[in-house]
Design a protein that fits this description.
14 helices; alpha/beta; about 25% strand; 19 strands; about 35% helix; 7-stranded mixed β-sheet; globular
């Protein structure tokens, strides 16, 4: 049986579709010989990706080498368009039925694929996986960067530092043709799954955020967008130590908090023993253990980036009443833009004033973020980019816009109010 190499690429998501096709065709020509069969195909959705794997399995074949060429976010390849982006969540990646041969390898020729996605893919799919730490561009040479001027001929995906990561000096080295390619990083499956929850820092986290109002901007926004009717049921996904529901307990009829951390849930139950209308449950995976239309409001405060977006959105749509709403407040990465400097300065001024007003909070916060357990948790739960979360939420709720409520030098806090769940009926939720 011939070895089967599968090369998949995207053409519609952002810019570079024509170049990705050229890169894929170049790779297919160089790999093909008498002993290898090459499948080279454009795919634009998660459904199409799954169909490719299903077709190969139905034909009784196995994949020896798998290559993906395209765009990616921190959590892996992107499909669709920026108007309606698709991405496999960690839950979906783990359950992908890919007919890999023994000793197969997977290669992800896309930006930042080595930072989180490649090691995760290696662990859950049990294959050696390669990816780039830095960003990727296109070059007509393999051994050093050369600007692709012609529209024909060989073209390669070229991983290297760029202006976003290394400033204008990196751009100059590329233009001068002296930039060498980054070597693909190699990841083997790890023998055991690491604890990626807050368990190791639960006590420190609970001490830091004992009073949820220390998250002043976030809490103020939630209170502004929470319905004023006290007869509402609230679901808090990623409830942590239960501080938010504790604060809301006298303003709502019922509240349920969900989290994956046993340690945090124990602390949440302890602090809410005097609130009989508040309950807490552990979940493991994107399934919500509630009947249809059980809640008026779902809140995700600084936790949505950790969730399996499409699978959990389907569950949220199911358990929320049609006139109910979803409120999301989360941190994302993005450099401050020139037009944002006034808001950035105000945010920083407020931050420094708070440092004097709340010294205990900032002391505890420093203890939390310098703890090795915090770094370990972030390694397995990276923060998303602003455009990823913005495009996702605004595409799933047409007409609703993400707000920026706080700006840092390299990060900011976003907030999103779905207003109701009726709009989501008109779109295709993409969990396969």
């Amino acid at each position: 049986m011939k070895e089967l190499t599968v090369i998949l690429y995207t053409t519609r998501y952002r810019k570079g579709g024509a170049q990705f096709r050229r890169v894929a065709n170049t790779m297919a020509r160089e790999i093909a010989d008498d002993f290898k069969e090459v499948m080279c195909r454009a795919i634009e959705s998660k459904h199409e990706m799954k169909q490719v794997f299903r077709t190969i399995r139905d034909a009784g074949k196995e994949i020896d080498a798998f290559h993906f060429i395209g765009h990616s976010g921190m959590y892996g390849p992107m499909y669709g368009t920026v108007n309606y982006p698709e991405q496999f969540s960690p839950y979906e990646i783990e359950r992908l039925d890919i007919p890999f041969a023994k000793d197969a390898s997977a290669f992800f020729h896309c930006c930042r694929s080595a930072r989180w996605f490649a090691p995760y893919f290696a662990n859950v799919q049990k294959v050696i996986t390669y990816g780039y730490h830095w960003y990727t561009t296109f070059s007509t040479k393999k051994e050093r960067y050369q600007i692709p001027i012609r529209q024909k001929g060989s073209l390669y995906c070229f991983g290297c530092p760029g202006r976003k990561s290394h400033g204008w000096l990196a751009s100059m080295k590329k233009l001068l043709g002296v930039m060498k390619p980054e070597k693909l990083k190699r990841f083997k499956p790890e023998p055991e799954k690491a604890d990626d929850s807050y368990n190791s820092v639960a006590k420190l986290y609970a001490e830091t955020f004992h009073d949820i109002k220390v998250r002043k901007d976030e809490f103020k926004w939630i209170m502004k967008h929470l319905p004023t009717d006290e007869n509402i049921n609230v679901l808090d996904i990623g409830c942590g130590n239960g501080a938010l529901l504790s604060e809301l307990s006298n303003k709502i009829s019922k509240g349920v908090g969900l989290d994956v951390s046993d340690q945090l849930l124990n602390l949440a139950r302890t602090r809410n023993t005097d609130h009989p209308n508040i309950d807490f449950k552990r979940i493991d995976g994107p399934a919500l253990p509630f009947p249809d239309h059980s809640f008026d409001v779902v809140i995700s405060l600084l936790s949505y980036r950790y969730l399996d977006w499409d699978p959990i959105m389907i569950e949220i749509e199911r358990v929320v009443k049609k006139e109910g709403k979803l409120l999301i407040v989360d941190m994302v990465t993005a450099p401050v833009q020139p037009k944002e400097w006034p808001k950035f300065i105000r945010s920083k001024a407020s931050h420094y004033i708070d440092r004097f007003r709340k010294p205990a909070f900032y002391h505890n916060l420093r203890r939390l973020v310098t703890n090795p357990g915090w770094s370990h948790m972030l390694k397995y739960n990276p923060i998303r980019s602003q455009h990823e979360m913005k495009w996702y939420l605004e595409s799933r709720f047409p007409g609703r816009k993400v707000e920026v409520i706080n700006i840092g030098m390299h990060s900011r806090i976003l907030a999103f109010d779905s207003k109701n769940m009726k709009n989501i009926e008109n779109i295709e939720l993409t969990y396969p």
